[in-house]
Design a protein that fits this description.
Elements (H helix, E strand, L loop, with lengths): L2 E8 L5 E8 L6 E6 L9 H12 L2 E6 L16 H18 L5 E5 L1 H10 L7 E5 L16 H7 L1 E6 L2 E6 H7 L4 H5 L5 E6 L8 H10 L4 E5 L10 H16 L20 E5 L7 E5 L2 E5 L14 H24 L6 E12 L2 E12 L5 H11 L3 H7 L11
Parallel strand pairs: 3-4, 3-5, 5-6, 6-9, 9-10
Antiparallel strand pairs: 1-2, 2-4, 7-8, 11-12, 12-13, 14-15
Helix pairs in contact: 1-8, 2-3
Length: 400
């Protein structure tokens, strides 16, 4: 789960805007700015879920309520598409001043149109991803088209958006008129990912076609089959966030995790090297596999990965489970899925320290008492168990 901070910054019209900064566990590999859909908020499920998935790919994500929406100050009636774009620029300024400017912009629905328009105004942006975005800002008129004559005649009208009343002024209609995003995207220098559902009944798939065709390479398209416009199903939002995160890792990261060097005895070796991205943050190479190791925040780390004793406990748990699987298959026992939980504890007896590994084994199928005792006996024969119980010799030398 991402670490979330409540933050505030000043918007384009001078109002205080409420925001959340979702941080990954461990150092951020880049910063992203998320723009929510028209009349929505930073806390809509799609915004939360996409942002949290982006953190699993190493991005810190700032999502905020536009002026007059959610917990932000200001009057929504005095805002328009252009002021939303300027709010995004102000959000980028805040990120630049407090941590790092965004290299990735992500926008949902009209927020997608806004990030396209804002990209040229934020010099550090390397990549832009849209979710169900219209190809022109004027598309939003369809959400209150029955009220347009009243707005034009009286200068304003109250409309229902998502079941809530909002005041829309004529200046909003004037501002969005003629703003074609496919014209803007054609001159955009950042990489573009267009994501859209072919069954979106709010913003049709033809909008995605216009944006994609107008954009220059590098550009990509992701079809969100079966999803609705608001990505109300959790699996749709999570999938979208994962795909954007994977794509953005190739376009928008501002720092990379250096890989530890390979060794000749890859099957029995582990190499752990500092990444330089945190006090203890390290990248481990285990044969052909890579993982991150770190210390928890309570020990001065960034909690970017398991700490050394968790890795040691996992080695015992993995070896136990695998040993039991080999035994069950050899004997033909139907145990179902096997899992092992190991918890490390350090005790003091007088002036001596003693390490204890508490192990708990679970098998899916019911077994009788005799087989249950045999399972415990075989667990004790796991090679890592035996290594931990007997003394080992460790030799150390400096590399040449």
């Amino acid at each position: 789960m991402a670490r979330t901070e409540r933050v505030e910054f000043t918007g384009a019209q001078g109002d205080t805007l409420a925001a959340r900064l979702d941080r990954p566990h461990g150092p951020a590999l880049g910063y992203a700015l998320f723009a929510h859909c028209f009349s929505c908020s930073k806390d809509i499920h799609a915004a939360q879920r996409i942002s949290r998935q982006l953190t699993t790919h190493g991005f810190a994500v700032l999502r905020f309520d536009f002026t007059g929406l959610g917990h932000s100050e200001g009057d929504f009636a005095n805002t328009n598409f252009s002021s939303n774009v300027e709010d995004l620029v102000k959000a980028a300024d805040w990120l630049r001043d407090t941590s790092e400017a965004p290299s990735l912009l992500v926008g949902h629905s009209l927020g997608g149109a806004a990030v396209i328009a804002a990209a040229a105004k934020i010099a550090e942006v390397k990549a832009v991803a849209t979710v169900g975005a219209p190809a022109d800002a004027e598309h939003v008129r369809h959400q209150f088209h029955t009220k347009v004559p009243e707005i034009e005649a009286n200068g304003e009208a109250e409309v229902l958006l998502g079941g809530r009343p909002f005041k829309i002024k004529k200046q909003f209609l004037d501002d969005i008129e003629g703003k074609r995003l496919d014209d803007i995207v054609g001159s955009m220098k950042a990489a573009l990912l267009v994501t859209h559902s072919p069954t979106d009944d709010v913003v049709g798939i033809e909008n995605a076609t216009r944006l994609f065709v107008a954009a220059k390479h590098p550009k990509s398209f992701l079809g969100l089959d079966g999803a609705d416009h608001l990505l109300t199903r959790q699996e749709d939002a999570v999938h979208t966030g994962n795909m954007i995160g994977s794509w953005a890792q190739g376009h928008a990261t501002t720092r990379q995790l250096p890989e530890p060097p390979k060794t000749e005895t890859a099957d029995r070796s582990a190499t752990v090297a500092e990444t330089g991205l945190g006090k203890f943050h390290s990248q481990a190479r285990l044969g052909e596999h890579l993982l991150v190791a770190d210390e928890p925040e309570s020990s001065g780390g960034d909690n970017g990965g398991p700490h050394p004793y968790q890795l040691l406990a996992s080695a015992l748990a993995a070896c136990t489970t695998m040993t039991l699987r080999m035994y069950a298959d050899f004997k033909g026992y139907e145990l179902g899925r096997i899992s092992t939980r190991v918890e490390h504890e350090r005790e003091r007896e007088g002036g001596d320290k003693r390490d204890i590994f508490h192990r708990e084994i679970t098998v899916e199928k019911d077994v009788d008492e005799a087989l249950s005792e045999k399972i415990l006996e075989i667990a004790n024969k796991c090679p890592v168990h035996q290594t931990l119980e007997r003394s080992s010799e460790i030799t150390t030398r400096r590399a040449k």
